[in-house]
Amino acid sequence: MKRLKRYQYERYAILCRDAYPKHFDHVHYGFSKNGRRDIHNRWGKTIIRVLWREDGDAVIVFKGSQSIWDWLLNLIVLPSKVDAPKNAGHVHWGFQFLLRQPSISTRFVFEKDYSRLSPSQQAEFKHSEDINRLEGHSVMDKLESCASSLVAQGKRLSLTGHSSGGSMAIIAGEILEQKYPGSIKRIVTFGQPATGFWSFKQRYRLKNRTYRICCDVDIVTFLPGLPLMFWHVGELLWLHNDKIYHNMPSLIRIIRVLTSWLLRPIAYHFMDKYIRRKDYFDKH
């Protein structure tokens, strides 16, 4: 497995963070003016942003939970067979529902306010509408329609997402990889809960191209909280005490964090803590 480089990590992290606000200037991040399609959930809110450069590859950004209903889906831990051509095992029902849910046009929700938008906002709105005129009614249908067009242009796809958006990226990545072999460049998730059952972990095709980022003791990364029932896939990159640990077992992570908290008052007495603060003096 190739290592995830720092600039790649920062790029995906920033895209995941900045994808949440309603206004998103994709050109600011180096993507082509017309290199964007937004896909909406059953409420008309953007759930996926597909971004690309004319002379480069594409990045698909999945948003995490945006409402109380999305959070409640995390509680539905029933098995759901992955909607892929070949058997890919079973995943968390709630996370796959986010891809199965109907996708409606934001024009259905915001048409009355369209005339009030500035020219640049109207252009952004139009781009987001293009994908909603494609055939297919579910979120995954529209994502596949857009992805197939990009793959036909020779572009490879990088998928990234935060929280349940990371789980969506894992499931969608498996489906797209089966239908368009070799199309997925990498998958990078942040604070992602465990997505599938053991059958999915065993059959997952992208384990050598998947990076799961976890910060300290992020509680969501331990969900659904049913040991030996749900399993993570890919390589874990655990960010803790200014270091990166690879594939650290969950129990060890918990013990190390608790130990760190208990020893923190003593650790701040060590000279390396003072040396690390040397940059503070340049600011005063």
UniProtKB/TrEMBL annotation:
One Gene Ontology biological process: lipid metabolic process
Pfam family, one: Lipase_3
Record PANTHER family: ALPHA/BETA-HYDROLASES SUPERFAMILY PROTEIN (PTHR45856), FUNGAL LIPASE-LIKE DOMAIN-CONTAINING PROTEIN (PTHR45856:SF24)
Fungal lipase-type domain residues: 59-225
InterPro entries per the UniProt record, alphabetical: AB_hydrolase_fold, Fungal_lipase-type, Sec_MonoDiacylglyc_Lipase
Protein name per UniProt: Lipase (Class 3)
Record-linked SUPFAM superfamilies: alpha/beta-Hydrolases (SSF53474)
